[in-house]
UniProtKB/TrEMBL annotation:
Annotated Pfam families: ABC_membrane, ABC_tran
Every ABC transmembrane type-1 domain range: 24-316
GO CC terms of this entry: plasma membrane
Subcellular location: Cell membrane
Record InterPro entries: AAA+_ATPase, ABC1_TM_dom, ABC1_TM_sf, ABC_transporter-like_ATP-bd, ABC_transporter-like_CS, P-loop_NTPase, Type_1_exporter
GO molecular function, one term: ATP hydrolysis activity
Keyword field contains Transmembrane helix: yes
Principal subcellular localisation of the protein: membrane
Superkingdom of the organism of origin: Bacteria
Name of the protein described by the UniProt record: Xenobiotic-transporting ATPase
Limits of the ABC transporter domain: 349-583
Spans through the membrane: 21-43, 63-83, 250-275, 287-307
Entries under Gene3D superfamilies matching the protein: ABC transporter type 1, transmembrane domain, P-loop containing nucleotide triphosphate hydrolases
Length: 588
């Protein structure tokens, strides 16, 4: 991996707008570490004052009186502690605010980028994995910035400052304390190299368990109806056990590190204690310097005992950053055009020689052509898998066509702003999705400034006002996640009301009445005469009764149009449409 692609480099590049804040926080952390180490130096000076008196370090400033020297040392101590408290306040506030800010912005940017990706991206990935990236991984990064970054800076500062002091004050003994450090660093690098793939696996296993839990919670009714509780408990247990085993491997490696490091550290401490004492006895070191060295050596070596914890935090954060940046690096395959509709949209649609295949390579549409006049009402029928819904998704540019052209009012849809294209179309899908919120909020979704009067009018046209009025809080009733408090027919009618309220020049009804009863369907059909007036309407249906009055009906089979015409004309052909009508109408 090149340095430019390293997760830490990517994070620094992402946070370039906060370099000043990072720099100040880093400087404050370094100063706080130095001030935190100062008492060890001050203790050494105090011992020298008491033992050496007029020959002490402070005496060289011209203050030979012992009481005066101690008073000066006390003032210095007070100043150091005050500066330590101030620097801690600064770096704590800056690091924590930075952690929260980057967490917020990274989650927002990742989600925004996710929204721009094509539907096939979501079809190839589980919701749980994506939620794991947006929540767990970004939260892991927040925890690292909140405490891990500061700890690493303090560790490096301590080693440099204390090690430098040893070399300056007592070079003849310093090498004994410093000798273990290269071995510790070598072990740490080897530890890091082995730990990185283990934590990458941990993050992957976290995504899998999140996927399992998300799927099971969404499908709880199916689990209960098929009495599959024990089976699903077993699957969750297996996924959770896999996550536990993955963590166990990382924990096993990190747990070995601390005892090994302690053995090396204690050797350096003993060497300093023994050989430093020998140097004092031979008048090569002062008592104050020796006291300082014995006391401070733990600051030099013991931080290495926490190195595994720091590496643990670091590797967890790097694994999370790698996944988040991987999401942000995912290329957007469907790009917006730069044209807008220059005049009010008429709704004339032209589909010319369109070919399309999903990623599996199987062609769904083959040289399909269709001309839809503005403000006309057309129907599309065909067997499941014939390409009806795919055609609608291509019109909305959820997918990109492989070959051919689709235009609206003569403008290629690939040249239009995606916002303008989709704003011009209301799509009422058979797979209705309602958001957790009130009935009114769901009807007004996409038209957020709609008044209650407009919402009710749309509901009446969709034949759902009556049942809404009977709900406990009427239009303020919470529908539950995915609208689970409502029946399938009720959800479909709310979706139709949502499409009506959008008031687009093009309306697509994709099996929009498949879940309603015959009486409601008949009522909706009457309303559709008002709804479809002065707008282009495309109705996809299995029930031929819902499209029999369309201006033109297209029959699709295996990605091609095999029949077209009015209802009576198609019956006269005695082809596929005639067969479907015979089955549905009970004609032998």
């Amino acid at each position: 991996m090149s340095s430019k692609n390293h997760p830490l480099f990517r994070l620094l590049k992402y946070s370039k707008n906060y370099q000043t804040q990072i720099s100040i926080a880093t400087i404050a952390t370094i100063l706080n570490t130095i001030f935190d180490l100062a008492p060890s130096y001050l203790i050494g000076v105090a011992v020298d004052i008491v033992v050496l008196k007029e020959d002490s370090f402070i005496a060289q400033w011209g203050f030979t009186n012992t009481i005066t020297q101690l008073a000066i040392l006390s003032l210095i101590t007070l100043l150091v502690w005050s500066l330590e408290s101030l620097s801690e306040f600064i770096y704590e506030r800056l690091w924590r605010n930075l952690a929260q800010t980057l967490q917020h912005e990274l989650r927002f940017d990742a989600y925004s980028h996710l929204q721009e990706l094509e539907l096939s991206y979501f079809e190839e990935r589980s919701t749980g994995t994506l939620l794991s990236i947006l929540n767990d991984d970004i939260n892991q990064l927040e925890r690292f910035l909140d405490s891990g970054a500061e700890s690493i800076i303090r560790f490096i500062t301590t080693i440099i400052f204390v090690g430098g002091s040893f070399i300056l004050i007592a070079p003849q003994v310093a090498w004994l304390a410093i000798l273990p450090i290269p071995f510790i660093l070598w072990g740490s690098l080897a530890f890091q190299k082995r730990l990185a793939p283990l934590y990458a696996d941990v993050r992957d296993k976290a995504g899998l368990i999140n996927t399992r839990l998300a799927n099971n919670i969404s499908g709880i009714a199916t689990i209960k109806s098929f009495t599959a509780e024990i089976y699903e408990q077993s699957r969750v247990k297996n996924e959770s056990e896999a996550y536990r085993r993955s963590n166990r491997s990382a924990i096993a490696l990190s747990s070995v590190f601390i005892p090994a490091i302690r053995l090396i550290i204690v050797m350096g401490f003993i060497a300093t204690l023994f050989f430093g004492g020998v140097a004092v006895s031979q008048n090569q070191l002062t008592v104050g310097t020796y006291g300082f060295m014995v006391f401070i050596v733990q600051y030099l070596l013991w931080p290495f005992a926490t190195l595994s914890e720091l590496m643990d935090q670091y590797q967890r954060a790097m694994a999370s950053i790698r996944r988040v940046m991987g999401l942000l690096d995912t290329p957007i395959r469907i790009h917006s055009g730069n044209k807008t509709f220059s005049t009010p949209i008429k709704g004339e649609i032209s589909i010319v020689n369109v070919n399309f295949a999903y990623d599996n390579g199987v062609k769904v549409l083959k040289n399909l052509s269709m001309d839809i006049r503005a403000k006309s009402n057309i129907g599309i029928v065909g067997a499941t898998g014939s390409g009806k819904s795919t055609l609608v998704k291509l019109l909305l540019r959820f997918y990109e066509i492989d070959h051919g052209e689709i235009t609206i009012d003569g403008v290629n849809i690939q040249e239009l702003y995606l916002h303008d294209l989709r704003k011009a179309i209301a799509w009422v899908s058979q797979d209705v999705f309602l958001f957790h919120g009130t009935v009114a909020e769901n009807i007004a979704y996409g038209n957020f400034d709609a008044t209650l009067t407009e919402i009710i009018q749309a509901a009446k046209l969709a034949e759902c006002d009556d049942f809404i009025q009977q709900l406990p809080q009427g239009y303020d009733t919470i529908v539950g996640e995915r609208g689970q408090k409502l029946s399938g027919g009720q959800r479909q009618r709310i979706a139709i009301a949502r499409g009506i309220l959008k008031n687009p020049p093009i309306l697509i009804l994709d099996e929009a009445t498949s879940a309603v009863d015959n009486e409601t369907e008949a009522a909706i059909q009457k309303s559709l005469q008002v709804i479809t007036k002065d707008r282009t309407t495309i109705a996809i249906a299995h029930r031929l009764s819902t499209i029999r009055n369309c201006d033109r009906i297209y029959v699709m089979d295996k990605g091609q149009i095999v029949e077209q015409g009015k209802h009576e004309e198609l019956l006269a052909l005695e082809g596929i449409y005639h067969s479907l009508w015979a089955v549905q109408s009970g004609i032998n």
